[in-house]
Specification:
- The protein has 353 residues and is mostly helical.
- The protein is built from 16 helices and three strands.
- The protein folds into two domains: 206 residues, Citrate Synthase, domain 1 (Orthogonal Bundle), CATH 1.10.580.10; 98 residues, Cytochrome P450-Terp, domain 2 (Cytochrome p450-Terp, domain 2).
- Helix 5 runs antiparallel to helix 10, helix 6 packs parallel to helix 7 and helix 8 packs across helix 16.
Length: 353
């Protein structure tokens, strides 16, 4: 089948996607429960070590991640040399690849990769290594992003970013995760698996939807322009990013969570007009196409309200999804068989020379 749509390509104990009775779960925990009762580091621990950590285990794990944020000197030099005009996804891919050269894989590499991705991104962005004592990944990122300006002080920012990282962390056999598993099935090193995944997510049909959703929302100046504008785009067969999902038939279960955060943030920072525009886009898409928004649509507004540059939206996806990718690499290695599907040949019949 084209695109392997509907084809079961293997077994996993990591997550369920699109199962009506369970929705989206990580190792048996519903995503709503995790957003309400966990944080990103505890979800990372769950995905990688198959259990939610007890409070003391979480404390130790967060301290471990903090200790692993230091960049090797040669990687720091490389990041400073990459031009500011570079695509941030290319920066992450190159940074991970360089880290693999400098620090060949060890058992600690899994946690190192979870810890180091936001450091790579922020160091390149700021032109200097961003080191601080922020405990959570969300607080570290928000502080590092604003280090040369103003520290964010509103806890809603941290809550929203942390929730977003949880929601993006894992999603079964999506394109980048499956690509990472294919690389893992060849018994390649973990850095190669992750650079494979980053390269896959860089493609606009997998990553980038949240960036395009933000551009869509911002192209309307007033709410009363939206309905006609979306109808016109649909009549012109233009793709409306942030809507629909290959697996979720009755709506993305992550979308209501992130929509509520977008509403709270828009009220907090005075962006109610943008939220109103987003809601009209959502309603018009349902009226015209019966298509629900996916996680990417309202995540775009969440990131915008927090003050995150649009070019960082997909890299933040990487900062989160690294946990799911690594969990799948570990699972693939635990019962490995080379992934090598067959192809249906549609070329010419045998020919004579």
């Amino acid at each position: 089948m084209t695109g392997l749509a509907g084809i079961i390509a293997g077994d996993t104990a990591i997550s369920t996607v699109g199962k009506e009775s369970a929705g989206l779960t990580y190792r048996g925990y519903n995503i709503t429960y995790l957003v309400d009762h966990a944080n990103f580091e505890s979800v990372a621990y769950l995905l990688l070590y198959n259990k939610l950590p007890a409070p003391e285990e979480l404390n130790l794990y967060q301290k471990k991640l903090m200790s692993l944020r230091r960049l090797p000197e040669k990687l720091l030099i490389l990041l400073k040399a990459i031009p500011q005009t570079a695509n941030p996804m290319d920066v992450l891919r190159t940074g991970v690849s360089m880290l693999g050269i400098l620090e060949p894989e060890t058992p600690e590499s899994i946690d190192k990769l979870v810890a180091i991705l936001p450091v790579i991104l922020l160091t390149w962005y700021q032109g200097q290594e961003v080191t601080n004592a922020q405990i959570t990944t969300a607080d570290y990122f928000l502080y590092g992003l604003n280090e040369l300006r103003v520290k964010p002080s509103d806890p809603l920012f941290s809550k929203a970013l942390d929730a977003s990282l949880i929601l993006y962390a894992e999603h079964e056999f999506n394109a980048s995760t499956f690509a990472a598993r294919i690389t893992a099935s060849t018994l390649s090193d973990v850095y190669s698996c992750i650079t494979t995944a980053i390269g896959t997510l860089r493609g606009p049909l997998h990553g980038g939807a949240n960036e395009e959703a933000m551009k869509l929302i911002q192209q309307f100046d007033e709410p009363d322009q939206v309905e006609a504008g979306i109808k016109r785009m649909l009549s012109e067969k233009k793709l409306i990013m942030g809507f629909g999902h290959r697996v979720y038939i009755n709506g993305d279960p992550r979308s209501p969570i992130v929509k509520d955060l977008a509403r709270q943030l828009s009220e907090k920072v005075g962006k109610q007009k943008l939220f109103a525009i987003a809601e009209i886009i959502e309603n018009t898409m349902w009226t015209e196409k019966k298509i629900y928004p996916n996680l990417d649509f309202y995540s775009a507004l969440v990131y915008h309200c927090i003050g995150i540059p649009t070019s960082f939206f997909t890299p933040l996806f990487v900062v989160s999804r690294i946990t799911g990718w690594l969990a799948h690499v570990i699972e693939q290695r635990s019962n490995n068989k080379l992934i090598r599907p067959l192809a249906n040949y549609i070329g010419p019949e045998p020919r004579q020379i």
